[in-house]
Amino acid sequence: MASMASVSWAPPLALAPALLLVQRWRLWLRKLRAKAVAVWPTWPPPPELLLRKGFAVSLLAALLLLLWVARSPGKNFLEDEEMLAWVRKEQEKRRSKLEDLLQQIPVSRLAQQVPPLRPFLTSGGLPVNDREAEEAAKEAVVVAAKFQITANSVSEAAEDLAKAQPGAALAAEGLACAAALAALELKSAPEEALQQRVAEAEEFTMLVQSRLSRGRARDVWRLYAEPLASAERILRQRRLEQWRCVARLLWRFKTTLPFVALSSVLSMVLGAFSAMRYHYQASVINLAKEAVTSSSGPARAKHGMQEAIGAMVVSEMILQLAEFARGRLTLRGKTKVVQELKVALFGALLRQDLEYLEQCDLWQLRSLIGSCGTTISQVVDFPATLLEAAVRLFTAVLALGRQNGRLAAFLGVMLPARFLLSQALQHCEERLEQSALPDFKGQINSCWSCLVQPASLRTMRAFAREPHELKTFTRFLQVHEELQQRKILIFRLMQPLQALLEHALEIGTLWYGGRLALRGDMDFGELSSAVLVATGAFDGARFAQAAAANVSRQALGPLAQMAQLLARRPRIGARSAKLLGGAA
C-alpha cells in the first residue's frame, strides 16, 4: 500500500518544479510588460500632444526640405562650355527649321486673309503702306487659300523650338502663323474632313496654352476662334443627324429593346442599393451608442442592431443578384444585336455596285464591321449607366437631406470644389514642368538614326564620326536626366498638395458634421457614411458624363456610317438581279 501511494504522488511532485518555473516566467513577463508600457510612447498619440508638438515638427521639416530643394544640383550642368555650345547648336537647328518654314509662307497674303495676325509678325514680308496693301488684297484669293505649308508642320517646328528654347519670340510667331493657317484650313475643309480639323485645332489649343503665357495664348486662340466655332456648329448639326440615323439603326433591332429596358431597371436597383450598407452601418453605430449611454433600452438597441446587420446582408444579396442579372441580360441583348447587325452589314456590302466597292476603303469597312461589337456595347450600356448614376445621385441627396440638409449642402459644394481645385493643381504642375531647362526629347531619334539606317552608318564610318556621335548621345542623356529630375521634383512637391486636397473633404466634413452632432442636429453615426455616400454619387455622375462623351466621340460616327451603308441602295436593276439569280 505504501508503494502504491508513492507511485500515485510521483507525477504531481515531478511537475511542481515546472509549474514554479512557469509562474516565475509569467511574473517576469508582467514586469517586463509594465516597464515597456512605461517606456514606450502611446500610439496613436493623444490629439493635444500631436497638435502641439507634431505641428511644430512638421513646420521644421517642411522648412528643411524647402532649403534642401532650393540647393538644386542641376544648376551647373549648363555652365560647361561644351554643353552650352551643344545646346546653342541644337537651338539654332530648330530655329533654322522654323525660319525656313515661315519663309515659304506668303506672309502678306496670310495676313490679308487673317488680319489679327499682323501684331504677331516681327519678320518682313508684310505690306508697309496702303498701296502695297491694295496690291496684296488684289493678289489674295477670296476663299481660303491652300498653302503648301500646313498648320501641323509649323506648329510642330514651333513646339520643338519652344522646348529647346523656352520663351523664344520666334516660337510664338510660329504658333501665331500656325493658328492663322489652322483658321484657313477650318474654313476650306471639306465636310468629311471637318471633324479631323476640329480635333487638330483642339490639340493645337492645348499646345498653345502649355507653351505661351495666358494672355498671349488667348490672343493666338482668337486667330482661329471664329472658324473653330463655325466648324463646331456644323459638327453639332451633323451630330444631330447622326443621332437620327443611329435611332433608325437601333429601331431595326427593336426586338432587343426589352433586354435594354430590363437592364436599365436593374441599374436603377443597383443605384438605389449601392450605398445602402453605409446607412445601416451608421444605424449600427447609433444603436451601439444608445445601448451604452441609455440605461433604459439596451435590449431594444440590441434587437435593432441585429435587424440593421440583417438588412446589410440582405441589401448586399440584392446588389449581387441585380449585378449578375444585369450582366446576363446585357450580354444576351448585345450578342443578338451584334450578330444581326454584322450579318446585315456584310449583306449590304455584298449587294453594292462594283463602282462603289472600288471607290471605298474595304479595309476600313472590314474594320467597321469587325469592331461592331465594341461600338454597340458603348451605346447599349449607356442607358443603364446613366440611370444607375442618376438614381444613385437622387438617393444620395435624399438620404443626406434626411440626415441633415446643411451637411448635404456642404458636401454638394465641397465635392465640385475639390474636383476643380484638383484640376487646377494638375494644370499648375503641367505649367511648372514647362521649365526653363531645354527639352531635347526628339534628339534621341537622330542619335539612333546613324545605327538603324545603313546609309547613315556608312557615312559615319567613312568620316570617322563615332566620337562625335558618342559625345552627342552623352550630352543628350545629361540634359534629359536633368529634365527628368526636375519633373520628379515637381511631382513630389505637388503630390502632398493633391493628397491634402483628397483628405480635406473628410476632415472638413467631420469638423462641420461634428459641430452639427454636438448641437443635436444629427447623429454621430451618420458622419461615418456621409462622405462615402456623397463621393460615390459624385464619382458615378462623372463616370456617366465620361461615358456620354465616349459615345459621342467614338461610337456615333461609326454607327452613322453603318446606318448609311444599310440604307444605301445599289443601282443594279431588278432585271439584272433576276438574271443573276437564274444563272445561280
From TrEMBL:
Localization of this protein: Membrane
UniProt keyword Electron transport, yes or no: no
Every ABC transmembrane type-1 domain range: 261-553
Leader sequence segment: none
Gene3D superfamilies assigned: ABC transporter type 1, transmembrane domain
Top-rank lineage group of the source organism: Eukaryota
Keyword annotations: Membrane, Transmembrane, Transmembrane helix
Topology in membrane: Multi-pass membrane protein
Pfam family, one: ABC_membrane
Protein name as catalogued: ABC transmembrane type-1 domain-containing protein
Membrane among keywords: yes
PANTHER family in the record: ATP-BINDING CASSETTE SUB-FAMILY B MEMBER 10, MITOCHONDRIAL (PTHR43394:SF1), ATP-DEPENDENT PERMEASE MDL1, MITOCHONDRIAL (PTHR43394)
SUPFAM superfamilies: ABC transporter transmembrane region
Alphabetical list of InterPro entries matching this protein: ABC1_TM_dom, ABC1_TM_sf, Type_1_exporter
